[in-house]
UniProtKB/TrEMBL annotation, chain A:
Coiled coil: none annotated. This is Molybdopterin converting factor, subunit 1, non-archaeal. Transmembrane segments: none annotated. It holds the Pfam family ThiS.
UniProtKB/TrEMBL annotation, chain B:
Belongs to the MoaE family. It is an enzyme of class 2 (transferase). It catalyses: 2 [molybdopterin-synthase sulfur-carrier protein]-C-terminal-Gly-aminoethanethioate + cyclic pyranopterin phosphate + H2O = molybdopterin + 2 [molybdopterin-synthase sulfur-carrier protein]-C-terminal Gly-Gly + 2 H(+). It comes from Hoeflea phototrophica (strain DSM 17068 / NCIMB 14078 / DFL-43). Heterotetramer of 2 MoaD subunits and 2 MoaE subunits. Also stable as homodimer. The enzyme changes between these two forms during catalysis. Its EC number is 2.8.1.12. Keywords: Molybdenum cofactor biosynthesis. PANTHER family: MOLYBDOPTERIN SYNTHASE RELATED (PTHR23404). This is Molybdopterin synthase catalytic subunit. InterPro entries: MoaE_sf (IPR036563), Mopterin_biosynth_MoaE (IPR003448).
Amino acid sequence: MRVVYFAWVRERLGKGSEELELPENVKTVGDLIAHLATLGEEYEAVFAVPQVIRAAIDEEHADHDEAIGAAREIALFPPMTGG
Amino acid sequence: MSGGVRGDSDKHSAATVTVRIQAEDFDIASEIAALAEGRADIGAVATFTGLCRDEGGRLSSLELEHYPGMAERAIRTIANEAAKRFALTGITAIHRYGKIAPGCNIVLVVATAPHRQAAFDGASFLMDYLKTEAPFWKKEHRKGGGAGEWVSAKDSDDRAKARWDKR
């Protein structure tokens, strides 16, 4: 699955996107964030406080309890500050 | 995607809905003219323009990052909702990305309607939703060099959006 990052999430991880093989037990956005937090020091720091992370599944906003299902692309980013 | 091409417009119950995400600046007068062209049912045009502030002289620029694809889709959803809810004749939203200097344009909303309240409300509604739902992020660049902080989301923006729920 493709995971894309924006703003300080992208900057602190040092990458804008990556392809990840997800373990079976990763079913929701929240599971994905918890899984990412185990991938290394930078990941742990970025995803330490899951509540500050917003998500989109295939370009639609998604809550943390939403199922990932057969999503093509998951985006993780801080609260938006456009306008 | 630049002036003159209108292939990105949707018809929404007779409303012309146009959304563009672009690096280039926009021209307010020509956007108003595009919405008014060929119509005699417009009695009101409300525009909102958001500009880059220098925050008391601290900033050399703001850098706007966006999620291509989703940014246009999210704003289009909001614009269609605004057109329907306020029975607009048209709504145009243009959001820029990239480095933007103080005093320069960031975002434009033009809403047209038979009467002024709908035009004001349509533009205001779109901006309040755009602030919290469109995937854009601002980073400050300081005068004298060096990147500053990512701008934090404001609770006041969430409250501004929430006020539309009560109506």
